[in-house]
Amino acid sequence: MKTVVNVTSHIHYYPNFYTNEEASSLFDILLQETPWQQDYLTIFGKRYLQPRLTSWYALNQKTYSYSGITMQPHPFTPVLSQIAEKIACSSKTNFNSCLMNLYRDGKDSNGWHADNEPELGINPVIASLSLGAERFFKLKHHNDAALQHKILLEHGSLLLMTGDTQHQWLHTLAKTAKPIGPRINLTFRVIL
Ligand SMILES: O=C(O)CCC(=O)C(=O)O
Ligand SMILES: [Fe+2]
Questions:
Q1: Which of 110, 168, 104 is nearest to 140 (CA)?
Q2: GO biological process: any one (predicted)?
Q3: Most Cβ neighbours (<10 Å): which of 30, 127, 133, 142?
Q4: Looking at the predicted complex, does its ipTM rise above 0.95?
Q5: Which ligand 1 atom minimizes the distance to the CA of 128?
Q6: Which residue has the CA at smallest separation from atom 4 of ligand 1?
């Protein structure tokens, strides 16, 4: 485990949270069984097709809203419950929801943002599992754009963001021109 940022924001990276074989098997199952959807985002009044596919899972039937989208929840599947349980052991957090992202290739991305929707509470714990193609996750400080970090999110790795990370930092999953395959990201959250 490597501590990347540690002031009042805590960002921890666990490579090999799952072995290569376990991660590949989870990738195959999730790619197949997930009802992936592509939504339109509304940013400053303009509509854009989201540059990735997503799916929203929640234990408490809560919807999730961001950038003009309200996502309807699917119930946790057995595989998702199993992953949530393993992550709960490492993070000491019982997550009740999961936003899944499918980046089909290097052209798919996730723009600069913070996970700061009101339903996540003040200092949310966010646990992010990466499966499939490796992609760079970048962070930049809200008040000082020169303060930046770049983390390669490997197959089977877990990234944990806690403390006031979502107040201090923005994050993005940038596009890449490299010819790469798909990546699945599972972002576990607690919806209040
Ligand atoms: O794909 C990733 O690693 C980041 C996903 C993310 O930031 C989000 O869904 O809020
Ligand atoms: Fe995010």
A1: 168
A2: DNA alkylation repair
A3: 127
A4: yes
A5: 3
A6: 173
Topology (CATH level 3) of domain 2-6+11-181: Jelly Rolls (2.60.120)
Strand, helix or coil at 186? strand
Tell me the domain boundaries of the chain: 2-6+11-181
CA-based R_g, the chain, Å: 16
Identity of the amino acid at 21: E
Q: Residues within 5 Å of ion ligand 2 by Cβ?
A: 115
CA-CA distance, 47 to 44, in Å (whole number)? 9
How far is Cα 165 from Cα 41, in angstroms, rounded to an integer? Answer: 24
Average pLDDT of the chain is: 92
Confidence of residue 6 (pLDDT cuts 50, 70, 90): very low
Model confidence, pTM: 0.93
Q: Is the pLDDT of residue 7 over 60?
A: no
Instruction: Name the nearest CA neighbour of 99 among 191, 190, 192, 187.
Output: 187
Residue 30 identity: L
Alpha carbons 182 and 72: distance in angstroms, whole number: 24
